[in-house]
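Fill in residues.
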């Protein structure tokens, strides 16, 4: 089956055919690093992470480039306000953003170019655009002349005449047409600036992405992505200058845009002051619930985020995790099955069905909500047979190898959506309180070397604390073992000793009902 994607350029859902057979070149507009990233930024990162994972699953070798805009008015403003060098501001937010992406299971892009390190590439582009008559010099600035570009507006559907009426020329700008945009801006006092044929200055925002995408992916690369708030002017301008510079079309073959994250009907944004910084969201909600919530809605639909969205998502992930745990217990309880039982065959049939529905949904412009429904249909079957085994209605051997097949399929599909499925997932606040407990524990409670390891490998605090308790229990230090178990209980985690070893589970939320499936909304 072939993947079909909605292309903003043609306004149609089209079959995806890559420029180079077996490969896919993807450029995604990254963050302007002047402040905390919020859920809106995370949605974009996750949407294109799912696209990348799906292309890879389809057998394509993907090159994923995502830039950092680290030269920008807002960064300069912030650095001046705080009285620090501008790269101190950018470094701080780049680090924070990368940590958030890691927590949300977003694969790191293959190339993460920074605008500030590609100034010569931009100057080279601007110089050629001036030479060709597409751009002009005015009082230290260089502007792109939109009237020289037939087809300007083809991505956003804007018409130049309307833009003339709507646009405003700021004082100190010397544009010929109000829609002309700056390729180079003359240096103002106290700003970072670079030497150029037009005097000292810095590049405009749009030219940064053109220079970096062309450098790493070449003309006519496959997919250019970003939030739909970037269609105009950013992406329109990228197309105009890149196609003028190279002298042919297309700059990118498919333009994919994700819809916005909404809060009470309004777009989440810095300017509206209605945003959840991702660092705050991670303190309140488990990372896998945030990831699930953001993939549960089709990427071209706005997603409203509220308390309910994340608690529903947390329950859905819990349901997946519980299914996996009980299936593991069934598989562990028996020798290899012979596959002759009807149960095993029914599970195989469920896998076939789920596989068809999952792939058809993903091929249909990345319908992740439909893909989740296929996953939950499979989970229902897995749970049904696991229950029957646990109740003693059928021998465990009769559900194998169908049950193992279903288990692998579940892992495979949740992996494409990047749903984490860690043995247990906790929010940042819980993690911090467990780490504080370990830090203050004596050797009697958590032996020194293990304590060091936990404080070093913070992400594994839960798993390593379980190990600490096992050590205490084996040494018959029951006081210590109980104290660790109590610490888990305080965090809402129940530690049970099962025949296959210790197992953690979460105290279920009061009055919780399992969700019906991968709800879209
Ligand atoms: Zn961009």
């Amino acid at each position: 089956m072939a993947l079909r994607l909605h292309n903003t350029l043609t306004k149609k859902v089209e079959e995806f055919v890559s420029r180079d057979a077996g490969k896919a070149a993807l450029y995604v507009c990254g963050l302007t690093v002047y402040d905390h990233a919020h859920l809106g930024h995370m949605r974009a990162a996750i949407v294109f992470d799912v696209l990348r994972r799906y292309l890879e699953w389809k057998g394509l070798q993907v090159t994923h480039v995502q830039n950092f805009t680290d030269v920008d008015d807002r960064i300069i403003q912030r650095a001046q306000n705080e009285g620090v060098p501008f790269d101190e501001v950018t470094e701080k937010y780049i680090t924070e953003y990368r940590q958030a992406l890691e927590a949300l299971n977003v694969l790191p892009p293959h190339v993460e170019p920074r605008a500030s390190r590609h100034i010569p590439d931009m100057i080279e582009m601007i110089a050629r655009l001036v030479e060709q008559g597409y751009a002009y010099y005015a009082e230290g600035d260089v502007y792109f002349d939109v009237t020289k570009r037939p087809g300007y507006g083809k991505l956003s559907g804007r018409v130049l005449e309307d833009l003339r009426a709507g646009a405003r020329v700021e004082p100190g700008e010397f544009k010929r047409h109000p829609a002309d945009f700056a390729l180079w801006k003359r240096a103002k006092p106290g700003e970072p600036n670079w030497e150029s044929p037009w005097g000292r200055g810095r590049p405009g925002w749009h030219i940064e992405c053109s220079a970096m995408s062309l450098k790493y992916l070449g003309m006519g690369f496959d997919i250019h992505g970003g939030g739909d708030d970037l269609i105009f002017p950013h992406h329109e301008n990228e197309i105009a200058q890149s196609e003028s510079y190279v002298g042919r079309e297309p700059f990118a073959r498919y333009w994919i845009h994700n819809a916005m994250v909404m809060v009470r009907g309004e777009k989440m944004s810095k300017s509206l002051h209605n945003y959840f910084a991702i660092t705050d969201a991670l303190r309140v909600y488990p990372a896998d619930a945030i990831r699930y919530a953001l993939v549960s809605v089709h990427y071209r639909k706005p997603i409203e985020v509220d308390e309910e969205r994340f608690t529903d998502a947390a329950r859905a992930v819990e349901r997946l995790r519980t299914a996996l745990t009980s299936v593991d217990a069934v598989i562990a309880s028996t020798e290899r099955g012979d596959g002759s039982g009807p149960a095993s065959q029914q599970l195989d049939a469920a896998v076939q069905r789920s596989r068809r529905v999952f792939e058809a949904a993903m091929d249909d412009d990345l319908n992740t909500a439909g893909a989740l429904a296929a996953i939950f249909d499979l989970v229902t079957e897995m749970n049904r047979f696991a229950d029957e085994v646990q109740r003693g209605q059928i021998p465990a051997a009769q559900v194998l190898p169908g049950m193992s097949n279903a288990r692998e399929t579940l892992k495979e599909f949740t992996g494409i959506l990047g749903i984490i499925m860690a043995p247990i997932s906790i929010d940042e606040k819980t993690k911090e309180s467990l780490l504080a407990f370990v830090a203050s524990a004596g050797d009697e409670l958590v032996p020194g070397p293990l304590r060091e390891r936990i404080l070093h490998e913070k992400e594994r605090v839960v798993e390593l604390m379980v190990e600490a308790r096992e050590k205490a229990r084996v040494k018959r230090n029951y006081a210590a073992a109980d104290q660790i178990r109590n610490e888990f209980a305080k965090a809402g985690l129940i530690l049970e000793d099962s025949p296959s070893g210790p197992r953690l589970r979460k105290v279920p939320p009061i009055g919780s009902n399992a969700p019906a499936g991968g709800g879209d909304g």
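Residues 509-521 have pLDDT under 50 and may be disordered.
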